[in-house]
Design brief:
CATH class: Alpha Beta
Number of domains: 1
Oligomer: single chain
Largest sheet: 5 strands, mixed
CATH superfamily: Holliday junction resolvase RusA
Order of helices and strands: EEEEEHEHEEE
Shape: globular
């Protein structure tokens, strides 16, 4: 059995290439929605141009409020963002790397910290037919930069 925030968790496994987090870190879960991928989050306008789809924008705002409560604006840069995914089956799964753009843009929107100051990692998708699809997002100080 794995640990999430020090508690037993049967669905969470850390990314295999993720560094250990630095001094400050928090982890939370967000629901997975179908248009969350970088390949699907933008819609086309009739007159040209693009817009962020309404559901994805609302998801990003919800994520933003969770992050805002942690006051990460003063944390040492770069920040490390890790995403682990739980899906019902392989057919419904997406590539976790395609979720990073949307997640990092939402973090940047609420904190004002440019996403060029993030390091990122993802875990292998996990499959559990009993659970709703969701993401496990961890944000923390990058330990390679913490003295």
């Amino acid at each position: 059995m794995d640990k999430l925030n020090g508690e037993d968790c049967t669905i969470c496994r850390p990314a295999t290439n993720a560094p250990e987090f630095g001094v400050k870190k928090f982890t939370f879960e967000m629901p997975y929605i179908k248009d969350l991928s970088v390949n699907h989050y933008l819609g086309r306008r009739r007159g040209g141009g693009y817009y962020v789809k309404k559901e994805v924008k609302a998801w990003g705002e919800e994520l933003g409020w969770l992050i805002k409560t942690q006051h990460i604006e003063g944390w040492k840069l770069p920040l490390h963002v890790n995403i682990d995914c739980v899906f019902r089956n392989k057919r419904d799964a997406c590539d976790p790397h395609n979720l990073l753009k949307v997640v990092c843009d939402a973090i940047e929107e609420v904190t004002g910290v440019n996403d060029k100051y993030y390091t990122t990692s993802t875990g292998e998708p996990l499959f559990d037919a009993e659970q709703e699809p969701h993401l496990i997002i961890s944000i923390g100080e990058d330990p390679t930069e913490v003295n």
